[in-house]
Amino acid sequence: MMETGFEFVIVGGGSSGCVLANRLSEDPAVRVLLLEAGGRDNHPLIHMPVGFARMTTGPHTWGFKTTPQKHADNREIPYAQARVIGGGSSINAEVFTRGHPSDYDRWAAEEGAEGWAFKDIREHFLRSEGNTILSGDWHGTEGPLGVSDIPDPQPMTRAFVQSCQELGIPYTRDFNGGSQAGCGVYQTTTLNYRRCSAATGYLKPVEHRPNLTIETGARVERITFEGTRATGVRYSRGGKEFLARAESEVLVTAGAIGTPRLMMLSGVGPADHLRGHGIEVVRDLPGVGSNLNDHFGIDIVAELNGHYSLDKYNKWHWAALAGIEYLAFKSGPITSNVVEGGAFWHSGLGGGEVPDLQFHFLAGAGAEAGVPSVPPGSSGITLNSYTNRPKSRGTVRLRSADPADLPLIDPNFLAEPDDLKTSIEGVKLSVEIFSQPSLRKRIRKIRFPDESVKSQADYEAYARRYGRTSYHPTCTCRMGDGEMAVVDSRCRVRGLDGIRICDSSIMPSLVGSNTNAATIMIGEKASDLIRGNH
């Protein structure tokens, strides 16, 4: 077995891992190793904004499925998680939203995450952001993460935004500004008409630093401990076994599924579960793999009365023309992220000023794995909605002690009745939006849900049948206090030394928006904590 030594070993080259690799290697005296199980981001579709539609399955994902969801027709729901450098930021829909400031204030005031209120982490959001249009108190312009407007929103996206206004939802220019509520066109994590993932923004500019080593195709099998101190990791790469020693700390950034899985394989987690798989317990932490919190998105799909959406580019000659236009002029449909329009709004159930629903409008149908589509040869549009702060909690557990086995993922979708009630209001609002004049004139028929869905019971059945993950798993190694907390407010694993967790798994609860910007913020904040800047 080959052995090497570094100050920091980072496990997971996703959004937060890329941030940490960049920030920690700024000190030339500090040797940093970044390990990623997936490959390099060399597939051209990764870098084309429209390529998101082809990235929810295939070799750049882990191929996860949930356990049968007892509150969602016992379906095993595809659970796309990235397996490529850059993580989710390399395959997601590039939507740039941060969540509501109250989400982070809740972390600090109610969930034991001292120092993580919005006033505390705002600087980390702004430091990461390189916005090409917006600036001021709410936006950064010099950060590594490129953020820009969609250059030419699709006609159906414009019609969606107009239909929202016809329903009474006000237009907003900025979902990340002083007020989140409203409808509009999302800004995206793109720069110069290309995806700007964490790998592109943070890693690529520094990958040749002599003190930074990046290894892809590296499957970490366990963290090594001497007593209660983490000393490094064992991993396999190219059929060979390696030991990387961490003289300072092991930093785990494998995501809300991969991180608890690795911790449990390494003997850190619920003791009875570990012993049941013959794993020696290093530290009994019942919160590892618990508290899984994800957005349960429900789609409606309409067939159009003409080829007005991106679906027309499913035909080879239109696709070829689009490719030529993009290569020659950096314009046209390939500059679209598909999920162009959106809204944050109120279900009317909970009251309060903070929206409890988010909507994503897709200028096409069947763009993602598992989403229903329109008849072949026609064009369609899709509107997805979800409850922003679902109460349902699930688990990640080991299938076996074999590192090659995929974990058991149970988001426990719709376990809480309030989640179902709020989600149904999102579906009803979606149908109302499609029924407004600007969209109605282009719609031949709403295919899903069809006209048979009328009663509350019908909508409940529809939600259970068609709902799915929104790719936002969080909270499985949550930060805070209490028996179920896994890390403290400095990201240090409780009861252990030399190890921190610095990714979306440490969120105390799910933020009410897409999660990539928050995950990058966690990497920025953690890098300061590690370097002792605060």
Tell me what you see in this structure:
It is a single chain. The protein is α/β, with parallel strands linked by helices and 534 residues long. It has two domains: 1-144 and 193-294 and 395-413 and 472-534, FAD/NAD(P)-binding domain; 151-185 and 296-387 and 418-466, Cholesterol Oxidase, domain 2 (2-Layer Sandwich), CATH 3.30.410.40. The chain contains 13 helices and 23 strands. The strands form six sheets. Strands 1, 2, 9, 10, 11, 12 and 23 form a seven-stranded mixed beta sheet that branches. Strands 5, 15, 16, 17, 18, 21 and 22 form a seven-stranded antiparallel beta sheet that branches. Strands 3-4-6 form a three-stranded mixed beta sheet. Strand 1, helix 1 (15-24) and strand 2 (32-36) form a beta-alpha-beta unit. The radius of gyration is 22 Å and the shape is globular. The two termini are 39 Å apart.
Keywords:
534 residues; alpha/beta; FAD/NAD(P)-binding domain; Cholesterol Oxidase, domain 2; 2 domains; 7-stranded antiparallel beta sheet; 23 strands; 25% helix; globular
* Gyration radius from CA atoms, angstroms: 22 Å
CATH class placement of the largest domain: Alpha Beta
User: In which range does the helix fraction lie?
Assistant: 25-40%
End-to-end gap: 39 Å
The gross shape turns out to be globular
Q: Kindly name the structural category.
A: alpha/beta
How many E-type strands? 23
Q: So, the CATH homologous superfamily of the largest domain?
A: FAD/NAD(P)-binding domain
- What's the architecture of the largest domain, going by CATH? 3-Layer(bba) Sandwich
List low-pLDDT spans: none
Average of the residue pLDDT scores? 96
Characterize the biggest β-sheet.
Answer: 7 strands, mixed
**Overall tally of domains:** 2
Number of helices: 13
| Binned strand content | 15-25%
